[in-house]
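Page header: ASSEMBLY MODEL / four components / 1700 residues total.
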Amino acid sequence: MSLLADMLATVFDRRAARITTRAYDGRPLEEMAEALIETSSETQVHGLASAILTRFSSLSDEQKLGFFRHLSTGMDIDPAAVRIALNAYEATPSKATYRAFMAAAEPRRQEFVRRLNQVPNATAALVQMRADLLRLGRNDATLAALDLDFRHLFASWFNRGFLVLRPISWESPAHILEKVIAYEAVHEIQSWDDLRRRLEPADRRCFAFFHPSMPDEPLIFVEVALTKGRASSIQSLLSESRVPITANDADTAVFYSISNCQPGLAQISFGSSLIKQVATDLAAELDGLKTFVTLSPIPGFRKWSEQTGTPWQIDHAETMRRLAAHYLVNAKREDGLPYDPVARFHLGNGAVISDIYAMADNSEKGLSQSGGVMVSYFYDLAKATTNQENYIAKRQVKTTPAVKTLAAAAAAAEKNKTKEEPAQV
Amino acid sequence: MSLLADMLATVFDRRAARITTRAYDGRPLEEMAEALIETSSETQVHGLASAILTRFSSLSDEQKLGFFRHLSTGMDIDPAAVRIALNAYEATPSKATYRAFMAAAEPRRQEFVRRLNQVPNATAALVQMRADLLRLGRNDATLAALDLDFRHLFASWFNRGFLVLRPISWESPAHILEKVIAYEAVHEIQSWDDLRRRLEPADRRCFAFFHPSMPDEPLIFVEVALTKGRASSIQSLLSESRVPITANDADTAVFYSISNCQPGLAQISFGSSLIKQVATDLAAELDGLKTFVTLSPIPGFRKWSEQTGTPWQIDHAETMRRLAAHYLVNAKREDGLPYDPVARFHLGNGAVISDIYAMADNSEKGLSQSGGVMVSYFYDLAKATTNQENYIAKRQVKTTPAVKTLAAAAAAAEKNKTKEEPAQV
Amino acid sequence: MSLLADMLATVFDRRAARITTRAYDGRPLEEMAEALIETSSETQVHGLASAILTRFSSLSDEQKLGFFRHLSTGMDIDPAAVRIALNAYEATPSKATYRAFMAAAEPRRQEFVRRLNQVPNATAALVQMRADLLRLGRNDATLAALDLDFRHLFASWFNRGFLVLRPISWESPAHILEKVIAYEAVHEIQSWDDLRRRLEPADRRCFAFFHPSMPDEPLIFVEVALTKGRASSIQSLLSESRVPITANDADTAVFYSISNCQPGLAQISFGSSLIKQVATDLAAELDGLKTFVTLSPIPGFRKWSEQTGTPWQIDHAETMRRLAAHYLVNAKREDGLPYDPVARFHLGNGAVISDIYAMADNSEKGLSQSGGVMVSYFYDLAKATTNQENYIAKRQVKTTPAVKTLAAAAAAAEKNKTKEEPAQV
Amino acid sequence: MSLLADMLATVFDRRAARITTRAYDGRPLEEMAEALIETSSETQVHGLASAILTRFSSLSDEQKLGFFRHLSTGMDIDPAAVRIALNAYEATPSKATYRAFMAAAEPRRQEFVRRLNQVPNATAALVQMRADLLRLGRNDATLAALDLDFRHLFASWFNRGFLVLRPISWESPAHILEKVIAYEAVHEIQSWDDLRRRLEPADRRCFAFFHPSMPDEPLIFVEVALTKGRASSIQSLLSESRVPITANDADTAVFYSISNCQPGLAQISFGSSLIKQVATDLAAELDGLKTFVTLSPIPGFRKWSEQTGTPWQIDHAETMRRLAAHYLVNAKREDGLPYDPVARFHLGNGAVISDIYAMADNSEKGLSQSGGVMVSYFYDLAKATTNQENYIAKRQVKTTPAVKTLAAAAAAAEKNKTKEEPAQV
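Prediction written out in full:
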């Protein structure tokens, strides 16, 4: 199939390229973009879209930025036109007036992006284009609207209903696995042997979301360890010398790493769906699984300690656990949500802060960002919705009693300290 | 796979259903729709979307119409809010003001539909929902805007880049084939034996577009006969007693039937892409194929004859051919485009009116709509773009010299007739 | 894939054919067969095997019979050579002497058949060849040895370990389904609609064994109904108006039809494996399934009645049940095994005669062969081995007490009758 | 699928194991083997075969050897019984006498192995069993017959017609790729990156034969480089810094490595089929490919040099080429076939010795075994059969004129040397 597909693709691309080349070779990209929006010939759409995507990918960063600016300003909405169309629709609601309003209220760059997407493999190219935009336009307020348009379209195209959950295993294609190695963002995969240790044993699982138009690109993946009892450190989970158990003997699924793969899909959220779908599927497959927890990093812990002048005592496990619990439960942003981004993610999914483990990640990164402390979030699917609602509506951070006790101890200590050493502030 | 998938789906659906049932059972659909748009809990989205789709599918036509009216009026844009947001964006273009404008300028029912789409199998249900809307709202101007919203979203979701071309053969699954039997709109398929005659021989092909989220539902399909020389009648192509040739011996591909399968995707155009992709693929597979033509019906011929008082002479083949050529070339709508819908489709794709065949479809339907006359459109991929541009820009109807001669003869005859028999008008 | 595969196959076949054609065109098939055994060139093997299979398929029945006779006599073992090789091996067991003995003791036609099998698609052609042999050589004792050779090779090639169990559903390819229609031997499938009723509902299943070298040809298939309680008639199982249940609600799986598909694989037994594998799989999939039974015909009942002068009373259900029980339990062949072939099959698998149903198959065929009576065999996987051993070793026919009572009643009645009417014999 | 398959397999295995365990646990393997041959219960066959394979795999080498000896002697043919059956068949050829002869002439261990093969995954276990036999029984003449029986059965089961050719690419499953790394026997694969360089570029291909019952185990694979002109060294082919070409630009396919993967399938020949099938497929896919050659090692060159006292002059390329040509063309075994095993393989396939390259493999292994010299065999599919016949019948070694000249120069030099320095011998 693949050979035949390649052959055909080649033929097709060649013809399409020829058609465009004739007419647009050498013209500025901006002109081609205009032509793409204006043409009513489907063949033209195809040829132009191909040519634009190819041309864009070979631009320098500066040229890309220039083109993004053109899309932002040259293809923005025209307020006057929107007003006229709006008035007309308000006066006489009809198919014609509504259609005119829709056309005026949507910037032309949205149609531009939709038309680019008609070429095979365009979706991946467009995701890459937004990655460029985010990278290059980070500090450029004039590009924010363009990014919102991308985001609007991507949210529609990467709708949960279009995504496909696929297991990643040692039997998966190598070109997918090398992406897992590259994209793992939490606990780095050192080598193919390291990867195999995370995929091949009977008590290890990995799942990813894919989009049918980007079948070779995982969007997000989660690594799961099936354990007897809860895991209290990442080094024991990833140890080369551990003895695997059978999947049927496991009572707990530990989600120990979740990685987003596509910078161009930033702010398009898949993680919550992924965890819940995987938990549901594992529960259906393995009768013995009763508990679903994470073993998660605490990425904001150091920064908060430094900012608040709360010094760590790394060699004192209990103190570290208390401090971390306190940080997770009580450190808040201005909007009242937790300071820690990973905590926001899991609490926002309806999970509960369940356990705090000291010396649970003694990698350099783990020690550096959280003094080796890790946290376990507990997913109770039956209560997730209620937790989620309370979290969103009331900023309620749900914990187990044990964690509450830890946090309270730290808060009390801090208070005392504050009283005793007022000069420090 | 299918068994496991079913199992998991069942578990999942059961849990999701339980979550919703508890909270929304018995509430009006409109209230659930509001809740779906408002919630920021992903689990809620899932549960509500499932429940709404299930509930909707069991409504009576009258209830559906009522719900559509709610979406139209209760979830329309608010012109005042749009104006405020527009002014703010115009005054201070920024991420915040643009986001606010986008939100105001898009009716909430679009987000409603997008959220419904997050449930597995929702896409097919939404296509069915629009089919209901088109059927029930045909004469209801207030529903036109709602339909435009559906169309806007579907155009984005059913973007050419997301569609998959798949061959349909006698080795295809029976549940797909029964849909081909059901949806064939041009030359009815009488039975499974009739279907087999169109799929199994080495000189017959069929291709369909599918969407990954509706893998069991062809969107549009085309039936192709591989022939030596061009076919001049549909009855010879479909004859039970014909002797197949090998595909390698064929020099011509005849597209003899194109059928849209989904009423809910009306006005989302796939046909042009389908023909070009199939032609490209067949050309790549079979070196001997040099000519790509259709054998097409002339559905508007009778109506035009009756309206213009141009009587047929069915037993006079040459006269019929001339009349049909004249009709196709010269009968125009107010906008200057051809009167015949099939002609508009193929000419709009850049094809050429190539041949006119008398007694080419002697089925009851064929005799009734066009006196048995059929037309062949010729696709020259190299020239399609130019033809298309001339057709769109200049309303140019391109024909072969032979067809031009036929049309001219009929036009002359008519003129003479008009001169001779002025009393008739 | 299929297109590419076809292409390549064509190229390959063409070259291979060319190679052979040059050298062997026109020579007698017998000479080509000799050459095939003698050559040590793999390319030659390929070319000759292709040519022989093609040539054979176009022979008349008489010519085929002639060729079979050649294989029987011209390629038989040479007793003198066997004796010499045997003596040598006995005197000096060694690699060389054993190899020589193996070669002498195996008729050359076995190697001939193995070499034919090297061509793509040869396996199906060889199965067809044996079907021809069985059809044409039925009364020809000289061909029996040849058939034993085929059987020996096929038993090795169609070893249970090489077979693949695949579900057949309404989503299966049409070219497989039409074979299911054609091969159904127990309860004829009238139409595609009838087929759909046996495949599509949630409480219907069908499974078949396939061999990887004949992926388009089911070898044997079984149709299963999932029911609540046991089914007591075939007409209720196949009724057009019945209401399906969900698979999860079923407590019983009824195997109501088992059909062998390949006459050329006669005496190569798959049925026992199929039933046990399907029962095991269904038990694993559906927790609720507790009972596995058949609803089986009694094909030898009429013949036995006529031969033994035991007249039926079709309108008297209880009498029919008793007679049938008596027949199944007590009517034996010379070797002590049951007279009824279906009974031999299921008892040989370790099943138990469980129930007798009157008016359970009121089709013409059912009434004709067994007066409408059917029998249910019960599979208890845990006891199957013991039953099987007792059946084989002691000719023990295991039944439920109810069936034993029925049979005893009939036997008693017959005895009385015999006593009362001695003159009848 | 895999999950479900695993689940079912587990259930099945558990039941089968239970059945056997009850009866045979603790009994000697020999007794279980007897029972396996004797039983007529299919369930018993299944249970026993599973148990025997499991038990065997955990034996020590000494125990395995003991079991092999039992199969050799305890399950050999009984000459007296063969004689009786042979006499009976000779006297009265019939189905019964032939069947009795077949049974007597085949050692019972063949049926033993066939019955073992009925369990899922047994085929791979049996291949491993023969690998053990070859390893342990190398010098044990009494085991030779047993090995011939394995070989006889494997030749039938691994018949070319049952094998499946599959491309191996960077998109292949990792668990297959790691076997390619492990089994590569000619030019060692150093790492996953090295593997990628041989699979991913557009001008690299790899193909393997698989057996449907061992889908995770390649049997043999070949690595191919698509080149413009012929490659003259392995280091240029495998260079990290080379620039790939497109497949369409290649005119030559270089088969640079062929590796058998299964020691247990020794002497079952696949290589010839593999090369020809791959050449045929590549020719069909890529119109530009005109030449099919190997770049092959000369593994026997050093040994021959040492044995014949023909010293190398590694820094003198031309001398090395002449010597190698002379060796390949003129060095013969007692049976008249070439001394070099790789030469025998390719000449036996009908290839031609085409070119000799000096410093073509400067790896340690290459320098050691052939002083860095490599040879290219040329495959002309049209002439392969004739070459093969001449090679087999007349021991004819076909070369290009250039190679003939090289060999003649070396032979002449050697003669002269022999004349001039008679004292050396």
